[in-house]
Specification:
mainly beta; 5-stranded mixed barrel; 5 strands; about 5% helix; globular; NA-bd_OB-fold; Single-stranded DNA-binding protein
Length: about 140
């Protein structure tokens, strides 16, 4: 399956982000250097039982990719830490590949359009400094 389906869920990071550079051959950024933030995450699955308790099910695992400028990619990657809960919005697709053992495997890849930190998670400390107003044409 190579169809993209909408994705808007909380996920937990289990492998910190890396940043790489690509030059797309097609699409709106064709021929332009583009940065890609990539990290591994999972979504815990639970099922509510008749008695009102929850039973933990197998988690679903994802490779998350965010495309953007080098400045925004580095800023996003620096803020992603193992164990964090993130709210991710974008599209997910299944990607088929052949594993080292020769078996066909499936990877769930999220093309993220938005990544936000879940503010109610334990251990999170937020420090924010309002930036001076930027001059017209400066990158955020």
């Amino acid at each position: 399956m190579n169809d993209y389906t909408p994705f808007n869920n909380a996920i937990v990071v289990y492998k910190e982000a890396t940043v790489s550079q690509i030059v797309p051959k097609s699409g709106p950024r064709a021929g332009q250097k583009t940065s890609v933030v990539e990290f591994k995450a999972y979504r815990p699955e639970f099922e509510k039982k008749a008695d009102g308790t929850f039973e933990k099910k197998d988690s679903k695992f994802f490779t998350v990719q965010y495309y953007g400028s080098e400045v925004s990619a580095k800023r996003i990657a620096a803020g992603i830490k193992e164990g964090m809960t993130l709210e991710v919005r974008g599209e997910v697709r299944e990607k088929q590949f052949t594993g080292k053992d020769g078996k066909t495997m499936t990877e769930n890849v999220i093309a993220a359009k938005g990544i936000a930190v879940s503010l109610n998670q334990p251990g999170l400390e937020v420090q924010f400094t309002k930036q001076k107003q930027q001059q017209k044409g400066q990158e955020r």
